[in-house]
Amino acid sequence: MSNPVITSVKVSKRENIVLTTTPSFHAQYLLDHIEIWKHLATFKEALPIQPWFKVAIHGIPTSFRTNEDLAILKEEIPTFNNGLKIVGNPYWLTKEEKRSQQLSGSACIAFASEQEAQKAIRGKLYLLGISVRVEKLHSTPASTQCSSCQHYGHVESRCLGTISCKLCAEPHHTKVHSYNVYKTKGRWCKHLAPVCTNCKGAHTADNKQCEAYLATIRNLNKGMALDNPIDIEC
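The structure assignment produced for this chain is given below.
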């Protein structure tokens, strides 16, 4: 065969290797001929890219410390939940530093069909000897700025951070920020010495020239957040 099969090779946000074929070929062709190319990279499983329906599951014991530990869910869910089978690899939504202080946390799993995801959401999943609550995974563009903590990647309703004023970086909501001398409240004042809570620079936290904001945009442009929406932290 003289025609090229692969047009690009990339590493996704989840550190999966993504192969893109030329227009003359498709994913199934690669899977059918996996014996020819599998020695070129180290991987556990090869799957075609297809729409997955992600959900967040809450109440997972943090004794399962790593994402690799969560692999047991791939067996637990089909065994104890008739008709349900997850695809891909489960991963923690709760950050490691929080898990170290909690007995349980939240993880993400995915189903191949919306029907399976809805079935899990409507009821409960049984796994690890317990029942856990399931909800649709909320995703937010990485460039979204929270109006509560001023950090990026989530909205106020999903914020788990510390409240920080957009104008002065003090621990209060922007709407209650006041400058008594000039009777301003919740808005910019020319006499204000602004402080950015993200980079500590002399500007407000929503300044589009902020180093933290520009770094977020650069990462998006480089494809470091390939899915652009990112998963919530729970």
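Interim note for the steering committee: The chain has three domains: 6-40, 53-137, 139-227. Residues 211-221 form the longest helix (11 residues).
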